[in-house]
Amino acid sequence: MVDENPLLFWKINVQFEYLKKKSQSTLPVAVECMFSTMGLILNGKRSRIGLDKANAISFIYDSFAFLDMV
C-alpha cells in the first residue's frame, strides 16, 4: 500500500524529513515546467503525435541543459 501512495510514504518514513522538505519546494516547479513543455509540444499542429513520442520529446527538452554537463 505504501508503494502505491506517495503521501502515505512521506507520512510513514520520517527519516527522509530533509528530502520531504526539499521535494515540497522543488517538485511544484518541476511539474510546472513539464506542463509548459508539453503545452509547447502538443499544439494544434502536432495534434496527432503519440503519447510515447510526446513524452520522449519532453524528456529530451527538459534534460537538454544537463546533457552538456556530462
Please give the radius of gyration in angstroms: 16 Å
Mean pLDDT: 76
Task: Report the span from N to C terminus.
Answer: 37 Å
Count the beta strands. Answer: 0
Q: Into how many domains do the coordinates divide?
A: 1
Please mark out the parts with pLDDT under 50 across 5 or more consecutive residues, or reply none.
Answer: none
Helix content: over 70%
The profile of the biggest β sheet is: none
- Return the structural class: mainly alpha
Q: Give me the number of helical elements.
A: 3
The run of helices and strands is HHH
Tell me the strand percentage band.
Answer: under 5%
Backbone shape: elongated
Describe this structure in words.
The radius of gyration is 16 Å and the shape is elongated. It is an all-alpha fold. Helix content is 70%, strand content 0%. It has one domain. It has helices spanning 6-12, 17-41, 51-67. The model has no long low-confidence stretch (mean pLDDT 76).
